[in-house]
Amino acid sequence: MDTNLDFESLGVRIESCRRCPRLVDWREKVAEERRASFINEEYWGRPVRGFGDSRASMMVVGLAPAAHGANRTGRIFTGDRSGDWLFASMYRCGLANQPTSAGLGDGLELKGVWVTAAVRCAPPANRPTPQERDNCATFLAQEMALLGRLKVVVALGGFAYQAVANMTGIERPRPRFGHGALARTPGGLSIVCSYHPSQQNTFTGRLTEAMLDSVFVEASRLAGGN
Fold first, then answer.
1. Spatial strand order in the sheet of 58-62
2. Which of 105, 7, 85 minimizes the C-alpha distance to 49?
3. How far apart are CA 2 and CA 48, in angstroms?
4. Higher pLDDT, 119 or 4
């Protein structure tokens, strides 16, 4: 199987999805109106595919594209402060070749990691519904299936943890979400939880650089060092 071609085909299917009317309306409205600071930029305004190393043993799952982040740049976790924190941490932990993600074609390469989200369209108030999460579940499952070496998933936030738990059948009793919590699936996949690197968490000190780094250090250990 040509894995790169399959990821490309999946990416095309993701980017053409219009399954959730509320999300379609919102992502396109934001792309048309734009934020004043980005008024001269052309927004992506479509669902956002995953990004990273197609031979990855680690997957990072976030919530959804930010309205003026990935919904603008076309790359997951790119163009907002959450992404700044995420990729800086991955760089410090040896999982990325540079600490920043500015946009498509900026030279960023991930090492042994695939980054994606539970929901592929920017949601109003950054709050997708459970139905919208479930509508995107097929895409997440297909990404996992394509990652034949996958050993560990880092779930950024409770919403992502729920999405991964629903899909993978985490062993019961299911551990409660918490920073650093670890769960396993019957198939041997490890799920490591982290607080989401949102401004709400990073500005208040609920999530520090050291805390996020520690999650990636543990995930790398569980993945066999990538």
1. 51-52, 113-117, 58-62, 152-156, 190-194, 182-184
2. 7
3. 22
4. 119
Phi, psi of 74 (to 5 degrees): 85, 5
Beta pairing, strands 113-117 & 58-62: parallel
Residue 158: other Cβ atoms inside 10 A: 16
Average pLDDT over the chain, rounded to an integer: 95
CA–CA separation, 172 and 183 (whole Å): 9
Distance CA 208, CA 202 (A): 6
User: For residues 161 and 148, is the Cβ–Cβ distance under 8 A?
Assistant: no
Asked whether the beta carbons of 185 and 168 are under 8 A apart, the reply is yes
Two tokens, residue 139: 């895409």
pLDDT digits (tens, 9 = 90+) for 74-89: 999 999 999 999 999 9
Separation of first and last alpha carbons in the chain: 22
Q: Mind listing the domains of the chain with CATH numbers?
A: 3-41+49-222 (3.40.470.10)
Neighbours of 39 (CB within 10 A): 8
Rounding to the nearest 10 degrees, give the CA dihedral for residues 87, 91, 93, 96.
90
Contact 82, 66 (CB under 8 A): yes
Q: Is 13 left (phi over 0), alpha (psi -120 to 50) or beta?
A: alpha
User: Under a CB-based contact definition with an 8 Å cutoff, are residues 97 and 108 in contact?
Assistant: yes
Give residue-wise pLDDT tens across range 158-203. Answer: 999 999 999 998 877 889 999 999 999 998 999 999 999 999 999 9
